[in-house]
Write a structure and sequence with these properties.
Largest sheet: 4 strands, antiparallel
Radius of gyration: 40 Å
Main location: nucleus
Low-confidence stretches: 1-54, 505-511
InterPro entries: BACK, BTB/POZ_dom, Gcl-like, SKP1/BTB/POZ_sf
Pfam family, one: BTB
Mean pLDDT: 86
Protein name: Germ cell-less 1, spermatosis associated
Number of strands: 11
Order of helices and strands: HHHEEHHEHHHHHHHHHHHHHEEEEEEEEH
Shape: globular
Strand order of the largest sheet: 4-11-8-9
Oligomer: single chain
Keywords: Developmental protein, Differentiation, Nucleus, Spermatogenesis
Helix content: 40-55%
Distance between the termini: 139 Å
Strand content: 15-25%
Length: 511
């Protein structure tokens, strides 16, 4: 039975092989039709098989030739993913076939001159008449304290790979190394990383590094961030880090985004000066003002009569900053003027000249019928305009005024239904200050709006530019119609105002 079964299996196998052979080689099978055709058509759905010797038509031949040419001429983008990794691992990390050894900060790197020549530093070294050009071992002097071994490792490694992952916490050290080695591409990458990660903790160090390593666009970006955030997002840490020179640039700028009024800039400076003098203080922002007031109050007892704190040895360095305060908009409010007198931080001579200036401005407005600025003088507006602002926490209807003696111009500001409206109030609403009844008054102004991310990064902004607005009694005027895309709350509104015409110009006109 086993023999019969084996014989049967063998017969089946031979039959199968015969059938397979017929299919593969096109041999005859039952029915007489050749394998590969059914009524003259190929089983696989292709074109009818041509007879031996049958050629293509001229059009078919041309089309096929054009198709092949297009196929051959179309580039195919294939990335050899392993090549860069292989070079980095084998040549840089393993140092195979190295022809130069670089020593720095107690560490050694087995590198290759052909890769190092991507660096302007090494390219000059190897191509010139420097003694190092023929040396196999080069000892690098590292004059910059910002450079460490880890930064050099990343900088050297960048010569052997296409992409570098930059850690923001290490970016200053890497920028320092890239600047020394003159790696322009890496310097640019560091600058972009720093622009993307500006916040209260990094902005001062980034600003200083931008100045040291010549990144002007980064320096400008840091200054813009500080102008937007110094008053809108105050923090103890930021006030501690701001240098005298940097604070001077901020306080002198008409682009400082002020919240409330000029008196709040003075208060911020008082807190900042206290932290510069007592950097070990570690309280909260809420405690800072009372602590600063108490500290300066104790120092006043040691002053001679008539001597302000800025005139003392401790305070003298801060004069360069405080002189950019626009005191005329601080003493225009009684409570603020009393605080200035009480603190005795500012020299009396400064205040006397401002009191005199404001008195003459009031007389001109009352007796000389000064109706306000007649034309836009950007320089005058930037240097002398009143800086004030307001935070709108959420959408709704708001109406407010920035108080102070504004020469009889009571300006009401309204936000409603995506409009910002200025109104000159004369008689129809109560006002604590004097009211001018001149038929028309001019006001020069600039209105800016902004929304910020939690990190202080600008989300959106809009400005009306400098304008002159003429208002009759109790007249109101829409000064900005907001796009709904700008309505990201909290919304910060900052204004620059000039209520009277410049005194010097009027004197020249009179002469």
């Amino acid at each position: 039975e086993e023999k019969e079964a084996a014989a049967a299996a063998a017969a089946v196998g031979r039959a199968s092989m015969g059938s397979l052979s017929s299919r593969v080689w096109g041999g005859p099978r039952a029915g007489g039709a050749a394998e590969g055709s059914e009524g003259g058509r190929r089983v696989d759905g292709g074109l009818p098989k041509r007879k031996r010797g049958e050629g293509l038509s001229e059009s078919e031949s041309g089309e096929e030739s054009d198709g092949e040419e297009r196929l051959l001429s179309t580039p195919r983008r294939k990335k050899l993913k392993s090549t860069s990794k292989y070079i980095y691992q084998t040549l840089f990390l393993n140092g195979e076939n190295s022809d130069v050894k670089i020593c720095a900060l107690g560490e050694e790197w087995n590198l290759h001159k052909i890769y190092l020549c991507q660096s302007g530093y090494f390219s000059s070294m190897f191509s010139g008449s420097w003694k190092e050009s023929g040396m196999d071992t080069i000892e690098l002097e590292i004059p910059d304290q910002n450079i460490d071994i880890e930064a050099l490792q990343v900088a050297f490694g960048s010569l052997y790979r296409d992409e570098v992952l930059i850690n923001p916490s290490r970016v200053i050290a890497l920028l320092a190394a890239a600047s020394m080695l003159q790696l322009d591409g890496l310097i640019q990458q560091c600058g972009e990383t720093m622009k993307e990660t500006i916040n209260a903790k990094t902005v001062c160090s980034y600003y200083n590094s931008a100045g040291t390593y010549g990144l002007d666009s980064l320096k400008k970006k840091c200054l813009e961030w500080l102008l937007n955030n110094l008053m809108t997002h105050q923090s103890v840490e930021l006030l501690k880090e701001l240098s005298i020179n940097l604070m001077k640039q901020l306080i002198s700028s008409s682009n400082l985004f002020v919240m409330q009024v000029e008196m709040d800039i003075y208060t911020a400076l008082k807190k900042w000066m206290f932290l510069q003098l007592v950097p070990s203080w570690n309280g909260s922002l809420k405690q800072l003002l009372s602590e600063a007031d108490a500290w300066f109050s104790k120092r006043r007892k040691d002053f001679e009569d008539g001597i302000s704190f800025l005139e003392t040895e401790q305070g003298y360095a801060f004069i360069a900053v405080f002189k950019y305060l626009r005191l005329q908009y601080i003493i225009s409010d009684l409570a603020s003027a009393r605080i200035i007198e009480r603190d005795s931080l500012i020299p009396a001579d400064w205040l006397f000249s401002v009191y005199k200036q404001q008195w003459f401005a009031m007389l001109r407005a009352e007796q000389d019928n000064d109706i306000g600025p007649q034309e836009i003088n950007k320089e005058e507006l930037e240097a002398n305009s009143m800086r004030c602002g307001r935070k709108l926490a959420k959408d709704g209807d708001y109406c407010w005024r920035w108080t102070g003696f504004n020469f009889g111009f009571d300006l009401l500001v309204t936000y409603t239904n995506r409009y910002i409206i200025f109104k000159r109030n004369t008689l129809n609403q109560p006002c604590s200050g004097s009211i001018s009844l001149q038929p028309r008054r001019n006001i020069a102004f600039r209105l800016r709006l902004a929304s910020f991310h939690s990190s202080g990064k600008l989300i959106c902004s809009r400005t009306a530019g400098y304008q002159i607005l003429t208002l009759e009694k109790d007249q109101e005027q829409v000064v900005m119609n907001l796009d709904s895309r700008l309505l990201v709350f909290p919304l910060y509104i900052c204004c620059n105002f000039l209520y009277t015409s410049p005194e010097k110009r009027r004197e020249n006109d009179g002469q």
